[in-house]
Amino acid sequence: MxxxxxxxxxxxxxxxxxxxxxxxxxxxxxxxALDEVENSTGPAALVTTSTNPKFFSNGLDLDWYSATxxxxxxDRDVFGDEYMALMGRLITxxxxxxxxxxxxxxxAGFMLALCHDIRCMRADRGFIxxxxxxxxxxxxxxxxxxxxHKIPMSAFFQTVQLAKRWTxxxxxxxxxxxxxxxxxxxxxxxxxxxxxxxxxxxNRDAYGQLKEQLYGENAAINGIHGPAYMLxxxxxxx
Length: 238
Prior knowledge:
The chain is an alpha/beta fold. It has helices spanning 24-38, 62-66, 79-91, 108-114, 141-150, 153-160, 168-174, 183-197, 204-215, 227-232, and strands at residues 2-7, 10-15, 45-50, 55-57, 97-101, 104-106, 118-122, 128-129, 179-181. The strands form two sheets. Strands 1-2-3-5-7-9 form a six-stranded mixed sheet, with helices on both faces. Strands 4-6-8 form a three-stranded parallel sheet. The radius of gyration is 18 Å and the shape is globular. It starts with a strand and ends in a 6-residue tail after the last helix.
């Protein structure tokens, strides 16, 4: 389901559960892998990808979610909270994170990609898309906040309201991803970028704290005060 390997200063988290659809069991296996990553010391970075060349992650496990009774996907009642908490953990991971989106990333899979610091996407095929509205679902406020922080405003409305399916070249032009490459070079490019950034992961406290300032409670960029006021009264904003 989740395979974690380590090469030089880079951890590679490979999702290998077919379409990598999200259920409670998948959330918990992913979380266990992050435990190992975070328990490391020294320079480090994370690369997340999929063994399936067609799907990076195809979103919520709808068969599991709509089924009744016991299921290998686990407890349905706790899924929402546990999945959201995992994404919050990933976006504030105290080391650089890079995802290699080697196939379709829909819904929860798109959220996963956005929670990484750097997004690399396959150039020749695959879409990233927030497709909740196509499924008759609304987008929860925490997810909207993630999109607003990670997607330029010019692409935000198209993404959340119109469920636009972004190709790699379109996503790069819109600023949603930072790099595109051919399939056979994508993981290598992501690994190179992660290795380049891994030095920043040596100081986990500082790297994680800055992410909390960007994305955590009372995030600095969401404050009601302008930067001039904050600069003139810096002692109030430690």
